[in-house]
Q: What sequence folds into this?
């Protein structure tokens, strides 16, 4: 499927993959865990259109919670910290532009926070749920004749839920930016894919200083540019990946340790404070979510499907 919406779905769900990896991809998109550890919200692509579903934490009792009567797709759902709403991306068929939306889990009503003049790819709530941070690009194309078309020139924006006031938080113009994560304070972590200039970064949404690259002082890895998939354990500790490794870093001491070593590249890392467990998928997941404790033990599998 070679139309514009298909390229958008490909970028949002499988950002960073080569075109040969994603041309046939339908099915599982992305997921998040409810704050109480009882539910999973996830997106799933069927015939080029993405829907949002919810299941219990075991992956059963799956229900459709947000679907469009038109050809619009709903992608990349993330829970609010109070568990009452989700934020997600809405993209109309044959349109590159996409909107940041909030869905109320009780009423099933959808509120659009932004228009569709830009390419918005993922969003998260602030710690107090009063603001939403989102990735937004202003260019779509390929920087090489060998590369597939994709969104570029990314920055992080914020929008107040009450007033809809929107602010450009960073001035990175990044080639690719993803994996937003917020801690219990004012910090937002994210990943930039940009060769030697890439890696994990942290941005203070209160001080508004330039984002700082996260690097380890004791890591045996020579290249911090491969650090990705950040998710906070607490305000000063961060889980992240380096290909097939799942690690924990103390952000004060810059000391890291390996939590888990997999036989595949790890993606979509989430941490449940309620369950005290880590969740993750393979890079090109079929809907299988893996779960381990914070010591890398007690592996469980959750199989999602619609």
A:
């Amino acid at each position: 499927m070679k139309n514009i919406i298909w390229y958008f779905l490909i970028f949002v769900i499988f950002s960073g993959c080569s075109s040969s990896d994603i041309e046939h991809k339908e099915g599982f998109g992305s997921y998040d865990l409810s704050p109480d550890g009882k539910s999973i919200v996830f997106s799933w692509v069927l015939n080029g259109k993405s829907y949002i579903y919810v299941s219990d934490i075991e992956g059963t009792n799956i229900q459709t919670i947000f679907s469009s009567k038109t050809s619009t797709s709903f992608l990349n759902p993330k829970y609010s910290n109070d568990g009452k709403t989700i934020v997600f991306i809405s993209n109309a068929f044959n349109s590159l532009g996409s909107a940041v939306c909030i869905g109320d889990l009780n009423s099933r009503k959808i509120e659009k926070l932004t228009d569709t003049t830009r390419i918005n790819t993922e969003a998260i709530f602030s710690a107090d749920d009063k603001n939403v941070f989102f990735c937004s690009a202003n260019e779509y194309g390929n920087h090489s004749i060998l590369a597939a078309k994709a969104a570029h020139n990314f920055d992080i924006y914020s929008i107040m839920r009450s007033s809809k006031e929107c602010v450009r938080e960073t001035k990175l113009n990044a080639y690719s930016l993803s994996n937003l994560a917020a801690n219990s304070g004012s910090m937002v972590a994210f990943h930039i894919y940009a060769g030697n200039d890439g890696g994990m970064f942290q941005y203070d949404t209160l001080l508004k200083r330039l984002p700082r690259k996260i690097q380890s002082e004791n890591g045996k890895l020579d290249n911090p540019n491969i650090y990705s998939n950040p998710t906070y354990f607490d305000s000063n500790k961060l889980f992240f990946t380096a290909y097939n490794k799942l690690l924990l870093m103390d952000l004060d001491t810059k000391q890291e340790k390996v939590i888990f070593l997999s036989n595949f590249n790890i993606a979509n890392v989430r941490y449940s404070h309620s369950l005290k467990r880590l969740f993750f998928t393979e890079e090109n997941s079929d809907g299988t979510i893996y779960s381990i404790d914070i010591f890398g033990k007690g592996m469980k599998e959750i199989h999602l499907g619609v």
Observations:
- Residues 4-14 form the longest helix (11 residues).
- Confidence is low (pLDDT under 50) at residues 1-7, 13-24.
- The domain at 4-226+286-303 is CATH 2.120.10.30 (Neuraminidase).
- The chain is about 5% helix and 50% strand.
